[in-house]
Amino acid sequence: MTPTPPLFLLLLGLIGAHATVDLRTAAAMAAGLCKTRPTDLIFIIDSSRSVRPSEFEQVKVFLAKVIEGLDVGPNATRVGVVNYASRVKNEVSLKTHRSKAGLVKAVTKIEPLSTGTMTGLAIQFALNVAFSEGEGARVKSPDISKVAIIVTDGRPQDNVKDIALRAREAGIEIFAIGVGRVDMSTLKQMASDPLDDHVDYVESYSVIEKLTKKFQEAFCACSNSATDVVFLIDGSKSVRPENFELVKKWINQIIDKLDVSDNKAHVGLVQYSSSVRQEFPLGRFNNKKDLKDAVKKMAYMERGTMTGQALRYLLDNSFNAGQGARPGVAKVGIVFTDGRSQDYIGDAARKAKENGFKMYAVGVGNAVEDELKEIASEPTGEHYFYTADFKAMTQIAKKLQINICQEEDPCECDSLVKFQKKVEDALQALTKKLENMSKRIALLENKIV
Fold first, then answer.
1. pLDDT tens figures, 32-47
2. Taking the model in full, what pTM does it have?
């Protein structure tokens, strides 16, 4: 005869099963919220003698927290750490650790070198060694980002300008973080454009953790973000050739932030002036390199401003299945103009929104803000943008990317924090249940005795 299990174990089993479900649910929620773009990421950290041991510990905490928010893996994000002072030490190579736990453990063991500040030497090492295939870097590809995050608190004792330029030209995106009495001009010499996005300053190491969320979001790519995006670009004569080149760069900035692939974001491009010309339809190019090359080849039309006609073309052609649009996929129209439309836009603008298209309106120079608001989706404050200067379009590119991403699938890169909170809540609930069950079991056992 099989012995009857003690009542306590039966109840504990039931509670444990319930808690496991809670934890699995929490994990599933966290896993679904954020995935980072495939990235080869190198931290380049200054451990010169001006960085006190306690401050260096805070840098390591910052690194660990950024890593915790990444989708670490051989096919996702690979992380390396270069430590420098007067010399350079390769602490963690891109091929060494394929899990967050291993990476974080390795980071905690890094010791400061406590000598000079050879920042240029460190960047050169990263370019020649840390980002090499021998150290685990992947072959250069439009689908793989190469990113360096430099953390320093002083003025370098060597030249950084030339080697940083070489690194950027090699396709490495550089973020420069300065602490305390850092030389700000040096940070700007190292960082990628736009500098507003790539240069950060904190007054002390004790507050460097406040940058964690920024860098988690910088590497965040929304999952399930299947989107058909069509740019509707004003090529009228008032734009002028030199500004039209800036517009093309702006388009490519937005493309850089999209997850372009067969199953994710598709991009189409239409130019208009006195007439409308499709540059390429949705789905023709399904990788960033080909898309950006096609944008660069767009020839300037240089005539009138028939924005209403262009919007009707968007309605009747661009988002049709025959032009590559996918059924059941979110549709986003991005309209750029630098002046007042020479035809009526009201009906087409209204119909685009009634059809469920998410419409963004971007105006520069003499663009009419009332027209931009008429084109833009609700809330208009989040869907229309205006700047007086073509050179200021970079900031609009950043905002547009974020809004597209969030609209389709909120990519909350603080998912780790939410997951931990969910786990803590589940464990607290489990503890309370165990306490209550223990009291009940004690009473039952007393009755049985």
1. 345 567 899 999 999 9
2. 0.51
